[in-house]
Design brief:
The chain is α/β, with parallel strands linked by helices. The chain is built from eight helices and nine strands. The relative contact order is 0.18. Bound molecules: 2'-O-acetyl adenosine-5-diphosphoribose (OAD).
């Protein structure tokens, strides 16, 4: 089976009703990124940040996978598929994808403030205990915090992601502005023979030497085209 790797960003979930970050009505228009998505912002005002992610988590429960998520999952019948996502939602999981690497963490998980990357500290948040509260302790006794990788923190899942991309026969990048590193640098690990597709309605800037085929359309429309192209072997 050929190895097909997806690299997805916020645009992947836009048609599920989840805001992207950098579009004009994106999340960062409403909340300064340094306040709600950096370790410094969390240390300065943990309650504000915890409540911000509590709201996002509740919004996520109202959202459903879109056609694009389902088409990504459907390709598992013909390809060895890995999804590397920058998204913190669980829409790839709910659409049925079985091998997912979350580069920037997961909204439905919580961890320790002291040892955020220790897997033994990570817990899953479920109804009726979906929210994190101030004073709620992780297993090590520190404040429980969202299991999100914030700016200023290491990205532990980048190594497994590099490993996947470096073995890809086909790499499909969907809905990411490719401005946040190290995720954006993953394209450069694709082997020379790897065919790279990009699905995004915007003029995303990328290294022209990568020979990318840009399907300049939304995620679901682009995935329909991609499935057709793969079927024809183009
Ligand atoms: P951005 O908001 O930077 O980029 C979203 C991309 O999705 C843009 O290129 C849009 O053109 C595209 N887009 C919009 N609607 C689309 C649609 N219907 N179909 C396909 N594409 C569409 O989001 P990311 O690149 O994912 O990190 O941002 C990367 C990281 O920055 C996020 O993971 C987050 C943020 O800081 C953390 O929270 C740590």
């Amino acid at each position: 089976m050929k190895k097909l790797v997806f690299l997805t960003g916020a645009g992947m979930s836009a048609e599920s009703g989840i805001s992207t970050f950098r579009n004009s009505d994106g999340l960062w228009e409403k909340y300064p990124v340094e306040q709600v998505a950096s370790i410094q912002g969390y240390m300065a005002d943990p309650e504000l940040v915890i409540n911000f992610y509590n709201r996002l988590r509740r919004q996520l429960l109202q959202a459903s996978p879109c056609l694009a998520h389902r088409l990504v999952a459907s390709l598992e019948t013909d390809y060895a598929v890995t999804v590397v996502t920058q998204n913190v939602d669980d829409l790839h999981e709910r659409a049925g994808s079985s091998h997912i690497i979350h580069l920037h963490g997961e909204l439905l998980k919580a961890t320790s403030t002291l040892h955020p990357n220790d897997p033994s500290q990570v817990v899953t948040l479920r109804e009726p205990h979906l929210d994190i509260h101030m004073g709620q302790q992780a297993k090590d006794g520190s404040q429980l915090r969202p299991a999100i990788v914030w700016f200023g923190e290491p990205v532990p899942m980048i190594e497994p992601a590099i490993h996947e991309v470096s073995q890809a026969d086909i790499l499909v990048v969907i809905g990411t502005s490719l401005v946040v590193y190290p995720a954006a640098g993953l394209l450069h690990y694709a082997p020379p023979a790897c065919k790279i597709y990009l699905i995004d309605p915007a003029d995303v800037s990328y290294d022209p030497s990568l020979g990318i085929t840009h399907l300049q359309t939304g995620a679901s429309e682009g995935m329909k085209k991609l499935v057709e192209m793969l079927r024809k072997g183009s």
